[in-house]
Amino acid sequence: MFFCLNLKQHLRTHESEKPYSSKKTCGKHFGYKQILKFQMVTHLEKKPYCCTKCGKGFSQKVILLCHSRTHTGEQPASCKVCGKSFYHKHYLTRHMKSHTKVVGV
User: Keywords on this record (predicted)?
Assistant: First the structure.
């Protein structure tokens, strides 16, 4: 049953089906119920995760963790090509594109 549910959710990504919506707040539609839950938290006035250094609130714990690195200076994701470091691996992934050449565009 669990596998079939995940398969159904996965197939929605291919069909662009987005049955979950936040009609009362912003009107956005989502393919996964969990993503809708994360979205609804972003509309709360008081966020559930708060930075102890500056008081800024966040809707997800992982976003708070990434933010806290701006205070500590920790940059755990580093480029193996040039050595530049980043707060989050997303920024490293984006940076890595600067090392690849696009041919014939």
Answer: Metal-binding, Repeat, Zinc, Zinc-finger
Task: Give, for 20, the enclosing helix (H) or strand (E).
Answer: strand 20-21
Rounded Cα distance, 60 and 70, in Å: 16
Do 55 and 36 share a structural domain?
no
1 Cβ contact list (under 8 Å, min separation 6): none
Region 78-83: mean pLDDT is 94
Rounded to the nearest 10 degrees, how much is the dihedral formed by the CA atoms of 41, 42, 48, 53? 170
Task: Say yes or no to pLDDT of 9 above 70.
Answer: no
- Tell whether the model's pLDDT for residue 75 goes beyond 70: yes
Q: How many structural domains compose the chain?
A: 2
Shared-domain flag, residues 53 and 89: yes
Are residue 94 and residue 53 in the same domain, yes or no?
yes
Two structure tokens written together for 28: 């956005």
CA distance linking residue 10 with residue 17, whole number of Å? 10
Q: Tell me whether residue 16 is in a domain.
A: yes
